[in-house]
Amino acid sequence: MKLSFLKILFIFLIAPFFVNAQINKPSLSPRIVKELQVGLANVTLDYGRPSTGDRQIFGALIPYGKLWRTGANASTKISIDRDVQLAKQNIPAGSYGLYTIPGEKNWTIIIHKNTKLWGAGNYNQADDLLRFTVPTIKIKDKVETLAIYFERFNANGGDLVIAWEHTKVVIPLFIDSDPILFKEIEEKILKATGEIKAQTYFDAAQFYYHKGKDFDIAAEWFDKAIVMKPKAFWYKYYRAELAYHVKDYKTAKEKATQSLDQAKTSESGDYGYIAKCELLLQKINTQK
């Protein structure tokens, strides 16, 4: 049966009221997406952040021994662009669901290959990449809103932390950066045939210094970087640090003083190097 013109017009006029009927209310568990570098890996965390309110969380709202989405709403996800280790377990580069089974003393951490689930609905253990356990840490200060983050960063990774209420778990992430960086230095400096930039010399020297590898070569590269970019007072500061480390206090004082003088007159700011230089000079002046 054909609709009359008036009926069609009526439907057309009232349709927007049905479309706009849903209330645009704020989420009680807002979604957060964090992108950060951990070692040489680029990591993305994507999760919903529920708050405690007046509820008891672990062992009550979230029972011990049962699968948890590790957040709210859609499942928590972690994406990594390089092969890494989580708690000494090999994780290929990719995107994964991050599920957990909380326990009073230990949590089971689950790296899941299906990232398209809503929470734990339709979860299938056959899609797990792997599982491992980590101990719980009881914390005095209450974490009101679920937090998933990294801390204790270092050249080879950092610690992935899940913290809520009075419970915290720590999952070390490790990526063996050294072979990658040594190879890059070999290609860009040791075997280079073209121009080498000051920043390349500085980055390589700083890496060698922090790794305790061949301080003489590190000093040579710092010096080349300083000659090429004499206004970079931070170059001089790290050259001073290296000299102090090898007990060449004369060079350390000279470079730290030069760095301090330049930092004080820098039109773009000192980036914290005035304080760094002054502290280093205090240590140098205590040496005989």
Question: What does this entry look like structurally?
Answer:
By secondary structure, the chain is α+β, with helices and mostly antiparallel strands. It folds into two domains: 149 residues, no CATH class; 109 residues, Tetratricopeptide repeat domain (Serine Threonine Protein Phosphatase 5, Tetratricopeptide repeat). 35% of the residues lie in helices and 30% in strands. The protein has a nine-stranded antiparallel β-sheet with strand order 1-2-3-6-7-8-9-4-5, with no helix packed on it. The longest helix has 17 residues.
- The helix count comes to 7
- Poorly predicted spans: none
Q: How many discrete domains?
A: 2
The major pleated sheet works out as:
9 strands, antiparallel
Along the chain, the helix and strand elements come as HEEEEEEEEEHHHHHH
Number of strands: 9
Going across the biggest sheet, name each strand in turn. Answer: 1-2-3-6-7-8-9-4-5
Helix share, percent:
25-40%
User: How many angstroms does the end-to-end distance come to?
Assistant: 104 Å
Overall 3D geometry? elongated
Strand content: 25-35%
Mean pLDDT: 91
Radius of gyration based on Cα positions: 27 Å
Return the structural class.
alpha+beta
Key words describing this protein structure:
288 residues, alpha+beta, Serine Threonine Protein Phosphatase 5, Tetratricopeptide repeat, 2 domains, nine-stranded antiparallel β-sheet, 9 strands, 35% helix, 30% strand
Give the SSE map.
Blueprint: H1 5-19, E1 31-38, E2 41-48, E3 77-80, E4 84-86, E5 89-91, E6 94-101, E7 106-112, E8 128-154, E9 157-174, H2 177-190, H3 198-211, H4 215-228, H5 233-245, H6 249-265, H7 273-285
Antiparallel strand pairs: 1-2, 2-3, 3-6, 4-5, 4-9, 6-7, 7-8, 8-9
Protein name: DUF2911 domain-containing protein
Organism: Aquimarina algicola
InterPro entries: DUF2911, TPR-like_helical_dom_sf
